[in-house]
Amino acid sequence: MQSITAKIQQMAQPLLEKHGFYLVDIEYVKEGANWYLRLYIDKPAGIDIEECALFNQELSDKLDEQAPDLIPNAYFLEVSSPGAERPLKTEQDLQRAVGKYIHVSLYQKQQQQKIFEGVLLDYDSQYLRLRQHQNNKFSEIELARKNIAAMRLAIEF
């Protein structure tokens, strides 16, 4: 059986494509007594609140048309931007992040540290290659993808 989020993603895809948006993440979670269906969307030039509201309304209308309901209980639908420091989870996320500053957390230390930040130069199925700036010097480092716990875009200070 397909999960609720997979079904919603499949339903949302034509709406996303219609507007030139893409899905960054989707979650269906219970927080306290309430259920939330959250979609994080974006587009190459960045997304604004009006576009999120438009997509929210269109998806809500489409969900209301479904019989039987895809979601068995009452829920809140939230559509938003993933934010400036959004997670990088998919291959498409990585493709869009090449040339951008990212934060990488590792499961095990490499060169005596578990956190790396730098510009994502490139990647393949085995490694990410970052350009770091430390102590007024630039260096490149390869990080094994199997050792990566989490990745996200980062703001460089």
Automatic annotation (TrEMBL):
<dbReference type="InterPro" id="IPR028998">
    <property type="entry name" value="RimP_C"/>
</dbReference>
<dbReference type="InterPro" id="IPR035956">
    <property type="entry name" value="RimP_N_sf"/>
</dbReference>
<comment type="similarity">
    <text>Belongs to the RimP family.</text>
</comment>
<dbReference type="GO" id="GO:0006412">
    <property type="term" value="P:translation"/>
</dbReference>
<feature type="domain" description="Ribosome maturation factor RimP N-terminal">
    <location>
        <begin position="12"/>
        <end position="85"/>
    </location>
</feature>
<dbReference type="InterPro" id="IPR028989">
    <property type="entry name" value="RimP_N"/>
</dbReference>
<dbReference type="InterPro" id="IPR003728">
    <property type="entry name" value="Ribosome_maturation_RimP"/>
</dbReference>
<dbReference type="GO" id="GO:0005829">
    <property type="term" value="C:cytosol"/>
</dbReference>
<feature type="domain" description="Ribosome maturation factor RimP C-terminal">
    <location>
        <begin position="88"/>
        <end position="157"/>
    </location>
</feature>
<dbReference type="GO" id="GO:0000028">
    <property type="term" value="P:ribosomal small subunit assembly"/>
</dbReference>
<comment type="function">
    <text>Required for maturation of 30S ribosomal subunits.</text>
</comment>
<dbReference type="Pfam" id="PF17384">
    <property type="entry name" value="DUF150_C"/>
</dbReference>
<keyword id="KW-0963">Cytoplasm</keyword>
<dbReference type="InterPro" id="IPR036847">
    <property type="entry name" value="RimP_C_sf"/>
</dbReference>
<protein>
    <recommendedName>
        <fullName>Ribosome maturation factor RimP</fullName>
    </recommendedName>
</protein>
<keyword id="KW-0690">Ribosome biogenesis</keyword>
<dbReference type="Pfam" id="PF02576">
    <property type="entry name" value="RimP_N"/>
</dbReference>
